[in-house]
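ok so I'm stuck.
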Amino acid sequence: MSAQLNSASILEQLKQLKDPLIGVPIGHKFKQDDIRLDGSVVHLRFLPGYHLNDQDVAGLYAQFQQLLEPLGATNVRLELITGVQIHKVQDGLKPIETVKNIIAVASGKGGVGKSTTAVNLAVALAQFGARVGVLDADIYGPSQPILLGVKGKPDINQKQQMVPPKAHGVWVNSFGFLIEENQAAIWRGPMVVQAMNQLLTMTAWPDLDYLIVDMPPGTGDIALSLAQKVPVVGSVIVTTPQDIALLDVRKGASMFEKVNVPVLGIVENMSVHICSHCGHAEHIFGEDGGKRLAQELQLDYLGGLPLDIKVRENSDRGTPIVESEQHSEISRIYQQLARKVAVNVSNLKKDMAHKFPSIVVKR
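replied:
not stuck anymore, here's the structure
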């Protein structure tokens, strides 16, 4: 065995480990007791805190070999413990029993693609192996039933709870199921918050790793009340690149900061339009505004999505593009966005007051 091959040197070398899909550092998740030596054979136990597919696991293993062979390792044995843990929510609130992590998808103003981002984020997380739900809290413009192609009202179980339907690998409940399609919801703020809490707690959610909440747009009384009363682990803010939308992002980030909800990152929607005939790229709404603002606010830039007719066409058909065109460039961006969110959630403070989830071990 090489003199270099010891637990301390291995731990130091593993700091270079990166997520195979998005390339962000994840080696800090290793601890000393995750490493065991048997001669020149290194046994590693790894808990990433989010789901990985087979391609990811193969990518990790290749990195382990590449990082540890220079130290004298002749073989690496990996014990990968997958699963998602419960993370801390706002003080005074308790997580929902069957939901490990609630993520709010918000926007400073309407019309920036928040709901489309929320549903594609949810489906992408499910594609990685997570159990995911979507809660459509946008009372004045519920769109998740259309985006997921779900009609009718949820069934009611023996406990008088709504049973969320499942579509494209995710469970969903929405204000849109509770009102007629052409009926306006003429509700004031307190009524909306009360209805939201009922929708959240009176839904028979199965065991979920993530519940994606499609928030009402803006930073007014309703959005603020929901941010204060729903046990959220983090938020994702959606914007477009133009200045008027970015101004509202600042307000949204400030709102979440005031209620102690971490902002997991900023998504820049409609970042560029690429002509389907000639391939010319045009920044209709401005260029890199979301990226610059993320840098200014010291927030993670989760990605920029192009303005593409296929997103609209698939949304109108009730099939999120990340599901219908999994290997397209837009789907790749959504998948990377979802992985960044999962990694950022895994880095949050754990909720030690509640039991840890069951885990699956791969060798």
